[in-house]
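Researcher: Here's the sequence for the chain we discussed earlier.
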Amino acid sequence: MTKFFTAAVLAGAMTVAGCQMTSDQQMLAGGVIGAGAGLLTASALRANTNWTIATTLAGAAVGTLVARNQQTNECAYYAGRDSRGNDVYDVRPCPR
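Model: Thanks. This is the structure I predict for it:
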């Protein structure tokens, strides 16, 4: 429970600070939040050490901002790979 509370507070602080972050800081925050989500998932499923490391790294990769279009205010986030092994990106409005 303590880990969950700590992660929730950290995620909330990063979300509130999101308005004041540079794009590099937003990219880092996305990776940290993604890694935290992967770690929490592995902990909730009581995964062994190897799976915990794998889910943490995968979460960090998935949560990372990879591109930002200033004109349309859209951000692209790495979302993993499809069944053919091609990179997949999630494009959505950037956080304000």
